[in-house]
Amino acid sequence: MAMITDTELQKSLLRLLKSKKLTAILNDDFPYSSLGTLARIRDGKFPTTHKVRSSFGLAGMISVQRCPNCDSVHTRKCLPKKKKIKRTASVRDIATAVVYIKFLKRRIQIYAKNI
Q1: Where are the domains of the chain?
Q2: Can you give the chain as a three-state secondary structure string?
Q3: CA torsion through residues 105, 109, 110, 111, sign
């Protein structure tokens, strides 16, 4: 039995649905599956277990680890992401902070005189 893709299976099921009902397709074409499985394939949700996939002629699924550098799955070596450079305070930020500190000191002095 030749392996087919998920979308090919879905397309053939949709073609059959134009002439037959889902229960008739189940009885005639896929007698060893369930009605719910056919309905999920029709809706684009494909089986994940090897036993069910092989009964439809689909290739098996394997689990693959994600790349620790870019957090995606790929088949070739990944270049690590560039590290973000922390922004240091600009001269304007420092000047603003100095003015604010002087303002606070001045308020404290005025408050101390009024006590």
Answers
A1: 6-56
A2: CCCECHHHHHHHHHHHHCCCCHHHHHHHCCCCCCHHHHHHHHCCCCCCCHHHHHHHCECCCCCCCCCCCCCCCCCCCCCCCCCCCCCCCCHHHHHHHHHHHHHHHHHHHHHHHHC
A3: positive
For 9-40, write each residue's pLDDT tens digit.
999 999 999 999 999 988 888 888 899 999 99
Indicate left, alpha or beta for 11 from its phi (over 0: left) and psi (-120 to 50: alpha). alpha
pTM: 0.53
Token pair 């590290």 is at which residue? 83
CA 97 to chain centre: 43
